[in-house]
């Protein structure tokens, strides 16, 4: 399947997750100049009086041209929530689409564990029940939540535009005094057997490396901190 077509089909998943997790109001709009910058090997997403420091994905490459000319970047924001999604314009494997994303929501009273439960439920509803599951590569440490993995061997029938596709997701959660954030990396490709790692759209080694990077390098900072 051509990479461009697969990226368009993946948009269905973005819209479904927006609706399920915490819908952006109808007045929300894509921001024409994404507040996303490069700082060394990290990316910084500046939104809602926060800075979200992110480890650049493995497929990221530095360059002189603006980020929006080198990658497919989408930012949607309003006064309460901001979402950035970045994916490569071209990939070596046209059957796999990679995505790196972060969502920030101003909910100062929300428990991070409760937010994680909401995200898990939202993802689980998108997948065939017998072909989905979650995993952690380490245990939570008090209020510090370990990265969470999601396996979906085949998307649910109610998402016909994603028929025949599955995905692997690794995500991490952060909290400030004013809000909560989830940072996640996805690999979408042809349907696969969740119990057979060799069929996954990404290697187990890459999943482990990215889980470690998300755990150790993601920071959610209030502007001015």
Domain module tally: 1
Briefly, what CATH class?
Alpha Beta
Biggest sheet overview = 8 strands, antiparallel
Shape, please? globular
Q: Order of SSEs, N→C?
A: HEEEEHEEEHEEEEHE
What is the oligomer described by this structure? Answer: single chain
Low-confidence stretches: 23-27
Helix-residue proportion: 10-25%
User: Roughly how many Å apart are the termini?
Assistant: 45 Å
Strand content: 25-35%
The SS-based structural class is: alpha+beta
Q: Which architecture per CATH? A: 3-Layer(aba) Sandwich
Q: Number of helical runs?
A: 4
- Find the CATH topology: Protein Transport Mog1p, Chain A
Chain-averaged pLDDT: 87
**Spatial ordering of strands, largest sheet:** 1-5-6-7-11-10-9-8
Protein name: DUF3298 domain-containing protein
Signal peptide: 1-28
Keywords: Signal
Organism: Devosia pacifica
